[in-house]
Amino acid sequence: MKIDLHQIPVSELIAGYKNNDEEGVVGFNGKLNIRPKYQREFVYKDAQRNSVIDSVRRDYPLNVMYWVKNEDGAFEVLDGQQRTISLCEYAANHFSVVFNEKLQTFENLEQDEKKQILNYSLMVYFCEGSDSEKLEWFKVINIAGEKLTDQELRNAVYAGEWLTDAKRYFSKTGCVAYQMASDYMNGTPIRQDYLETVLKWFSNSQIEDYMSKHQHDPNANELWLYFQSVVNWVKTIFQHYRKEMKGVDWGELYNQFKDKKLDTNALEREIVRLMQDEDVTKKSGIYSYLLSGQEKYLSIRAFTPNMKREAYEKQKGICPKCDKLFELAEMEADHITPWHIGGKTTAENCVMLCKECNRRKSGK
After folding, report:
1. Model confidence, pTM
2. Sign of the CA dihedral 239, 244, 245, 250?
3. Which region among 15-29, 75-89, 99-113, 340-354 has the lowest average model confidence (pLDDT)?
4. How far apart are CA 267 and CA 245, in angstroms?
5. Residue 133 or residue 158, greater confidence
6. Bridge partners (DSSP) listed for residue 6
7. Could you report the per-residue pLDDT of 202-213, keeping only the tens digit for each?
């Protein structure tokens, strides 16, 4: 990995600055791609944006920036996009900040004030190397400014036609994936949460391998078709929407159970029952439980310390499975009548078993 530190004056950074949908966001006389394919949208709030200009005006140091040097000699911003756009937009008179107790655009500043900003030096690392070297190094240096997410770091390494097409579906504000499934997914598209989630589902968590293999594919149709299948399956199987459905690991469930014959009406009846069961403390786990049968998804309510003590005293410290005497700390509470066949988490349904017997007990 080759890394070189350079001082770049603001005047050189803003030279040739353009920011539009057709030509993208570029600067440094057209040699710097300020918003590469892997980068997020502009996320700074006004106060953050203005503080960048204020820091430069006062000659305070900004955090170091990182540019990726490409084979053709051009650059892409890896870290520092938000600061870069803030500077360029201000120099282009697109917003005002307080100077001398009044709001002023760059154009309205005194000549010495303009000169001071234009001469301000940014500390920029130029970096170049193999995909694996860059990914590892990017993870290490990702410590300043608005930190890149894991998926944004992957996007930095595996940029290409495939990624451009995938971002069209999953990574834009108000993108089609958001319109289709925002009620079912956590996160936000512009921070690459949607893209990362779908890639995890589709690649069996081998995201980097998948992106490497498909980096130069002409489109992301395969991933988009898969995502539509997941969402349509969920909406077909669970037709009554509830807020607890947001953030469920739907892709994993689809991968495992898409070919299983399911009774939609029977599932709905069970959902209604479980939503009313006070022993089920994690309602969002109901969907995974109904498909897999694993109670761990429900976080069944535990017996209270008082319930455990009451059962222990009634049993005089004897485990009913092995008839041996134990201290309270050596025992665990369990349902006499298992929860899955109607048993409740009540004092009357509590039994204390030694740890060994409890782990061998069926119905857990």
Report:
1. 0.60
2. negative
3. 15-29
4. 14
5. 158
6. 124
7. 999 999 999 999
Q: What is the DSSP string of 12-28?
A: HHHTT-EEETTTEEEET
What are the pLDDT digits (tens) for 199-238? 999 999 999 999 999 999 999 999 999 999 999 999 999 9
| Amino acid at position 285, single letter | G
Token readout for 242 is 């509830």
Q: How far is CA 305 from the centre of its chain?
A: 37
CB 314 within 8 A of CB 324: no
Contacts of 70 (CB under 8 A, 6+ apart): 76, 128
Q: Are the CB atoms for 35 and 77 separated by under 8 Å?
A: yes
Q: Which two tokens stand for residue 56?
A: 């430069």
Largest CA distance in the chain: 92
Structural domains in the chain? 2-157 (no CATH), 172-301 (no CATH), 305-360 (1.10.30.50)
CB atoms within 10 A of CB 210: 20
Per-residue model confidence as pLDDT tens digits over 133-156: 777 777 676 655 456 788 988 887
Compute the distance between CA of residue 75 and CA of residue 82 in angstroms, rounded to an integer.
16
- Give the residues across from 20 on adjacent strands: 24
Both tokens of 37, joined, read 């394919």
**CB–CB of 352/312 below 8 Å?**
yes
